[in-house]
């Protein structure tokens, strides 16, 4: 049965929408072709950050109100996310976030390491001055990331982080790798990111983005591979910390 979101069908569920920081932000970049794409990106970041939680029912009008847009682009964005298996439509009510097992999260991290580490190494090995205009854009993104980390803007941080890493990987020239990595990142969950931001540790790991650019310019293949491995393993550590916290409060 095709997913359908009918007008007015969601209003009575509005009070079930909860976001940890109450904040959901649209990306403020001009090159996005449509509002639908902007809403999809904002929701994707909220999913990765765990601000939209598995098991909770979300309605299009409630999310539309938080984003300050009409319900139509939100419903369209939801259908995009349904196709990616990130959410499941609940007839006449809205949609529910897909739950991932511990094993699935481990597999996503391993797949990202296998793809991203050697590809970043290859970018460093192939560095040439013609890459400079793109590296200038990456430096600007790295500065924006540091600012977002310092001000705890988690969804903006995740949007910028995805753009930084996919643009960096794209310098290798294989669009298929970029596409798959983007998908793997969308399906990841970083439940502990907000706590990390509050502790100030996110700013520390964010400095690695600028170091990655320096290592590429220095053509330091093994150095960039090692830093990419460390950087991606934060994902696993952040997640493991949250697991530990949850099992400590829930003995079952
Ligand atoms: Zn990053």
UniProtKB/TrEMBL annotation:
| Source domain of life | Bacteria
Q: Is the keyword Iron-sulfur assigned to this protein? A: no
Entry-linked SMART domains: FCD (SM00895), HTH_GNTR (SM00345)
| Pfam families to which the protein is assigned, alphabetical | FCD (PF07729), GntR (PF00392)
Q: Where is the HTH gntR-type domain?
A: 33-100
The alphabetized UniProt keywords are: DNA-binding, Transcription, Transcription regulation
* PANTHER family xrefs: GNTR FAMILY REGULATORY PROTEIN, TRANSCRIPTIONAL REGULATOR, GNTR FAMILY
Q: What's this protein's name? A: Putative GntR family transcriptional regulator
Record organism? Microlunatus phosphovorus (strain ATCC 700054 / DSM 10555 / JCM 9379 / NBRC 101784 / NCIMB 13414 / VKM Ac-1990 / NM-1)
């Amino acid at each position: 049965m095709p997913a359908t979101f009918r007008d007015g069908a969601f209003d009575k569920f509005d009070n079930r929408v909860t976001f940890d920081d109450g904040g959901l932000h649209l990306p403020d970049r001009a090159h996005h072709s449509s509002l639908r794409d902007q809403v999809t990106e904002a929701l994707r970041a909220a999913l990765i950050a765990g601000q939209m939680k598995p098991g909770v029912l979300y309605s299009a009008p409630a999310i539309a109100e938080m984003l300050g847009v009409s319900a139509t682009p939100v419903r369209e964005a939801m259908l995009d996310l349904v196709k990616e298996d990130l959410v499941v439509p609940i007839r006449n009510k809205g949609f529910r976030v897909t739950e991932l097992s511990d094993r699935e999260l481990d597999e996503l991290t391993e797949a990202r390491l296998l793809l991203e580490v050697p590809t970043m190494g290859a970018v460093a090995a192939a560095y040439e001055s013609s890459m400079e205009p793109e590296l200038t854009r990456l430096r600007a993104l790295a500065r924006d990331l540091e600012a977002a980390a310092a001000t705890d803007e988690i969804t903006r941080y995740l949007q910028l982080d995805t753009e930084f890493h996919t643009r960096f990987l794209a310098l290798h020239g294989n669009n298929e790798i970029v596409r798959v990595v983007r998908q793997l990142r969308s399906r990841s969950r970083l439940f502990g990111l907000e706590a990390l931001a509050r502790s100030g540790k996110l700013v520390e790991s964010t400095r690695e983005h600028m170091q990655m650019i320096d290592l590429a310019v220095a053509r330091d293949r093994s150095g960039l591979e090692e830093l990419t491995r460390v950087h991606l393993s934060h994902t696993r550590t952040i997640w493991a910390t949250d697991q530990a916290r949850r099992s400590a409060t829930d003995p079952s």
